Amino acid sequence: MASLVVLMLAAGVALVQAVTMPVLYPTLLLREGFRDYRIEVVDDGDGRQLQVAGLIGPGFSQSLSQALAASPGVHTVVLSSPGGLVDEALLGAGVLHGAGVTAIARRECDSACVILLLGAQRRLADWDLALGLHAVSDLRRDVADAGQPAVENMAERAWNFMRAQGIPQAVLDEAEGYQANELLPVPAIDLVEAGALHGLTDGGRREVPVEEGKWRFLEGLYAWRDPDDPVAALMALVRDSRPGLMQRWAEPIHSAWAAQAMGQAGEFIGRFAGDVFTDALRSADDHAVTAYYRSTLDTLQQLGSDGRWQDCQALAEGWPWPERGGSEAGQVRGQLAAVLALAESAAEQQWQVRPLPEGAERDGQALLAGTLHQVAGRHANDPRRRCEGHVAVYRALMAVSPHEAAPVLRWLGGAEN
């Protein structure tokens, strides 16, 4: 009787295996293909950290837990992963949360890696990283309808978790339209502002303000768009030596780009350059100041030759001068390059304001009365006469030494901007 029971049980097991293995075996094989991760402790010069790289596969969460337990002095986990198994990522997220570590997404963090990252109590990402999201899918692309409830259940768990950790619903809704071989890139900067991430890093352990992240993004954008455009170099100089201006302009310029409002972005760049010019004029050395106005004089004369009197007057009487395209782009670029050279001199002087010597205002007023007003005469509101008057003023100042001209030019710049 006992042997009969054993035979019946064995037959039952065989029957179950015969029915389930054709379904489970391919899935198990596919899951094993994700067993390609590396978890190791490294010393980056600032201390020890746990580096996690590769696919999130079978046994990942257990390996992560063991590595953290074996390294009690490690408080930072760096993640670089293209994704993997959602169930293992959810378990790994719980491990990170329980360990109380800081997680940093670096180089790539897509799909299931985003879930893992969101488990940490403190979550950071490199400023230039975009995290990739897509819909949860079955490992078997030809999955039968019978397997769909399990996929939907896992997707619901993943989406609920990411929503609870601060991923905006609009982002999750959009990601639903992306398949497993596609990615919706979500900038880390946006996720910081949404509250899903707590900050940005510079590629190491130093955290950078979100304004700096936006600024670095804009630098790269302008450099990529046109390597010869001085805007990127001007932005880099300001970031390194005049961070107050960066903080003032990062949000409006970045927002204009994000909204694809190119006209508004160009206007903001002009106003930013105007702020740089105003600060730099007060600090740059005499030779740099006269070199700037010599360049400006060349541009004014060219605008006059082209009959563009209103543009000539606008440039002479102060920034912003609107960013333009077509044949005018070169003149705008030249003016921005001149501002860059002036700012470089100011940075060398630590942006220390140079007080105007006694008599600078008097000399400037005399020059305006004796040259600008004399040229413009009764037609003071006529753009052509105003342009010709400014050209005459700058010609007069270029005829004397930089030491004599620069104080008056600084006063003129302050009076007319």
Helix content: 55-70%
Going by helix content, strand content and strand pairing, the class is alpha/beta
The helix/strand order is HEEHEHEHEEHHEHEEHHHHHHHHHH
Q: Biggest β-sheet: count, sense, barrel? A: 7 strands, mixed
Number of domains: 2
The separation of the N and C termini measures 105 Å
Choose one word for the global shape: elongated
Strand fraction band? 5-15%
What is the number of helices? 17
Number of strands: 9
**Computed Rg:** 32 Å
Low confidence ranges: 1-31, 322-327
Determine the mean pLDDT: 84
Describe this structure in words.
The structure is a single chain. It contains 17 helices and nine strands. It is α/β, with parallel strands linked by helices and 417 residues long. It folds into two domains: 165 residues, 2-enoyl-CoA Hydratase, Chain A, domain 1 (Alpha-Beta Complex); 204 residues, no CATH class. Helix 4 links the parallel strand 4 and strand 5. The termini are far apart.
